[in-house]
Amino acid sequence: MKRPSDRTGPRTLAHGAVLGLAGVLLMAGPPGPLRAAPATAAWEPDLEAEPHRYFQRTPRDRFSRLIPALAEGRLPLDRSSERALVRSLLRALDIPESSQLLVFSNTSLQLSLIHPGNPRALYFSDELYLGHVPGGKIEVATLDPDLGAVFYLFDLQREGSRGSVERARRCMNCHANEDTMEVPGLSVKSVAPGPEGGSLDTFRAGLSGHAVPLSERLGGWYVTGTGGFDGHWGNRMGRLFQGELGATPLEPGRRFSLDRYPVATSDFLAHLLHEHQVGGVNRLVRAQYRWREVRHRHGGSLPLAWPADLEAELAELVGYLLFAGEVPLPAGGVAGDPAFREAFARNRREVEGRSLKDLDLRPRLMRHRCSYLVHTPFFEGLDPDLRRRLLGDLAEALASVPGPGTPARGHPG
What we know:
- With 413 residues, the chain is an alpha+beta fold.
- Helix content is 25%, strand content 12%.
- It is built from 9 helices and 11 strands.
- Strands 6-5-4-3-2-1-9 form a 7-stranded antiparallel beta sheet.
- Helix 1 runs parallel beside helix 9 and helix 6 crosses helix 9.
- The longest helix is centred in the last third of the chain and has 30 residues.
- The protein is globular and about 60 Å long.
- It starts with 14 loop residues before the first helix and ends in a 14-residue tail after the last helix.
């Protein structure tokens, strides 16, 4: 893929054009050169300084605009029980309850409440993430195009009460480090959990996304709908014996009642899509921060030549959006919870009957080899020049892929 270093006017490309090109990739992967290892440079932003000012700037995402109504009790919420309130809040925020993921490791701000008998539930959509542990507070991570992930914390409101929605600076201890590529992003921990949820060992530190081996995922999480596949660390309790790490099975619902939660699932497919989104979001946020910083150093203009390490990161990002390095799914495929599959597809964008949200699930996650993340409000809100650059590079890469039935190099086809 040609990548002139002096390109300052990237081609514009409509989202429909990307989808149309992606539609031919039913049996092909991304071109071989895009199958690159992460090219993250030794760079991290000063969040307090110009041009970022992470804590000083006002977020402009959808959830932030809803905060006054939430704090003043104007959202139509069912406060008859904790479970009912969570379900109604999910409906108000348009987050499917079938996206529920249950985690019992102490890897959250509310770690004192989380253990195998009281797992934390995480719910997500394309642009919003909500966490709740029974007896605790609501946590929200929302994606702002300028700032990246923004975190909020608030109590469940009782009838007639007014609440306070706190922008949680404490979350940055875990959400702006190596696990999030040093920018405000999302984190998926995988640990060997001890009997009370504490970590005996940690897997895939600093890594996120669809290239993480399945064998290193899901430690400390409950998982349903695996179809018998157990090549992961989910549903296990770690144990140390004579210095050796082992594990014993821990089935969902065995130490707690699933009736306490909106649904009785922690679906394998939801875990897989969540992992893909986290990896993509973190890379996009990092690109936005680096792009903004370079532009700031050049007085608001685009430079004649971009730093080589940023060029390498943009190439890796394009590869990620084309599913480069995606690990194959289990041999028998993944079925997915029907309710979650329906909810995931409800905002699909179509071109000639095809959508970037069309699932494959045997042997890979998506049917088309371009991520549906390019159709999210977060992507559309990126710096216009960065977005055009990425869309142009995606078009160039997709146009060079062989037609259906001819697997691309370096990818299971």
